[in-house]
Amino acid sequence: TPPTHPSCPPGDDAMEGRSWVLRSPHAVDSHLVLRSQAGADETVARRVSWAVGRGAEVLDAAILPGRLKSVSWCGYDSAAPNRLAACSGEELLVLDLDKTSQLRRVIATFRPQGVGELGAGVAWLSAGRVAMSKGYSLQEVDAET
Fold this sequence. Notes:
By secondary structure, this protein is mostly beta strands.
């Protein structure tokens, strides 16, 4: 039986949270493993080196904002190889795993206008532009930081 959270009714898939394994667009053996528990205010992220015959080695771990619905790793900016875009239901976040001085690695927050909830998808269009779904539409955001 999966653990339950008071904010999730029995049988609600949201109680299990979300998980991602993202391959780095900059390094062949670098991956990001994320786990967001439903109802929790944090997402646990681990950057790992994962090679055949060697297994996985954790290179870095971070606590990111919670309630994330989608995550995308930016492959356009080799000067910022650990930059991510993530959506919660209300905000688009730009995260940089190398910015350890920033709380939860957040370097920019955007609250797009319009009707609908964020989170069904997010993707980088270039080093400074992010596309995301909001309700039934697609929006582009200038995410230069």
